[in-house]
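Record type: ASSEMBLY
Status: queued
Input:
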Amino acid sequence: MSPSDPAPAEDPDVLLTVTGLHKAFGRHDVLRGIDLSVRRGKVLVLIGPSGSGKTTVLRSINGLEIPDAGVVTAPDGIRVDYSANPPRKDILAMRDRTAMVFQHNNLFPHMTVLENIIEGPVQVKGIGKAAATADAVALLDRVGLAEKRDVYPFQLSGGQAQRVGIVRALALKPQLLLFDEPTSALDPELVGEVLAVMKELADEGWTMVVVTHEIAFARQVADEILFMDDGVIVERGTPREIFTAPKQERTKQFLHRILSPLD
Amino acid sequence: MVSDAAWELFWSSLWPLVSGAITGTIPLALISFALGLVLALFVALMRLSRNKVLSSIARGYISVIRGTPLLVQLFIIFYGLPSLGLTINPWPSAIIAFSLNVGGYAAEVIRAAILSVHKGQWEAAYTIGMSRARALRRIILPQAARVSVPPLSNTFISLVKDTSLASVILVTEMFRVAQRIAAFSQEFMLVYIQAALIYWVICLVLSSGQSVLEKRLDRYVAQ
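Status: finished
Output:
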């Protein structure tokens, strides 16, 4: 299928398609034609060296980054066409379907944990405060942070803050969860508690797109892995295909570098 | 040695001066500051706007306000505008001049405070579905407020003292009362020092108010 083809026939099981994504920062091409799709309940993991463009792909899905060309679609006719200066309402519709967890949690520092979580549901989705609070408390309980509901973000450890960030995303009841290197800014001993929550979400059937350097997580949790380098998808496949039998030389080199850094 | 007559003048002029502060200086400062802050917020947003025309207007406004003396601004409004057929009474003239002045200075403070909020805060607000306006109101401005309290307190304290300039356009605030008493009694030193002390006390009260406000806004920041 060439990028100029119309969007694929609506398959309600495909929660996201990205077609022909291009982006340049100045004279540097960060994305040079990215195509991907995610099916309901699946976990797509993007790996690759720093600067390969994987975060830009993720941020193009919800319009935090505006690519120069490309189309992002979701079920029910949601379609953001970046080639034609997309209307704001299209981007807002896509954001309504997605929620994001950031590398630096980006919790709102002036709000308590609970206020952080109910802000979107109450202010944006118009859910009553009582219902949103009950929902938030249940979610906090699930990630083991119920007793932190009334503290401010600065009183949390990095791992706790990131778990609250995940709860804030879940509270929006998105169809698609986007994770932008959620453990890269954490101290090593705090990474596990965050990955454990993410694995649980995957097991529960959440649809996720994850940018990460955590190879063990990708191996265990991903349904599909995309290896990106220099603005293109070099190789894609199941974890087994990518990690045990990579076909492309660049994939082999990358995996070798991160799996045996001292060789 | 302070004479009995001087003491008597001190006590008899105390209430007129304090009363001038209560009915003149303080309301003049409060009203002008409130209006000026609203204006400043709009100017700051214009200045930050990607619209070249809006940001140029804001930039020009700030430049003129900061580049000309407050006394001259006051004279243009009170003594200058009548020659264009627009006569404004002393009180409104003073409020307009002071508000415009605060608007220019505070706009830069607010702009810097908005810019000081990390970009990730905007992004997090957008990803939970907020519009730009709602993100600004719910997420960015509350954080910018904390940063701007110290510099805006300076602006307010300067304004309280600057209201004395209104005396030259015949507004009966504390300093104009002081000038009258001084002229009548010929005790310039005593009366002006008395006025100075009252300004000082007002500013001390404001400074402690600033500390209270800063503490309150700092409750969500690691100490």
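Annotation: Residues 1-7 of chain A have pLDDT under 50 and may be disordered.
Annotation: DSSP finds nine helices and ten strands in chain A.
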